[in-house]
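Backbone shape codes:
===
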Amino acid sequence: MTELPALITAFTTLFIIIDPLGLTPLFIALTQGMTPAQRRGVAIRACLTAGALMVVFTLLGEAVLNFVGISMDAFRIAGGILLFLTALEMLFQRRQARKAGEANEAASHLDDDPSIFPLALPLIVGPGTITTIILLTGQADGSAEVLAVGGVLFAVLLIVFVAFLSASFLERLLGRTGLNIVTRVLGMLLAALAVQFILDGLRGFGLGG
């Protein structure tokens, strides 16, 4: 995991799952009418909360699996299937609509601050993110590699923060068509990574060569 190709793979997987570019229009919608200072505050609180949740799942995720008697190989297969379904949603443009629906439903129950819910949870740290974190830490061998996973998480979260701060600019720059193209390309990459997780799990059971 400390080798550059493994780190790039981990970064790519988390970047696609969290999808900072896809979150920017939702961030704009959830912070409409706020001043730039208020928007910055929401972005900071959302990213700090998401970071704390990521740390919890990085440190305790595999322990929880062991407690309930689930092997990492079984979780790799299940996680790969979940990520593959997410990739299909991205390819057919269903994921953005679903996330927008979650955001709108949550916003209807909120007065002002969407930073904890729905931004941090479940939009940044959703089921796909949790699954990916547990899979990556399960592949880590030793504390140095767990720290490397933590560094990748921090890098992706930093990109989310920057995307939130420049949300209006990114939306104008890419436009709806640009965002759709980026989402579909990332969906293809995620589908390939999901298949790799499934193959790794099958190998753990002595299947798949």
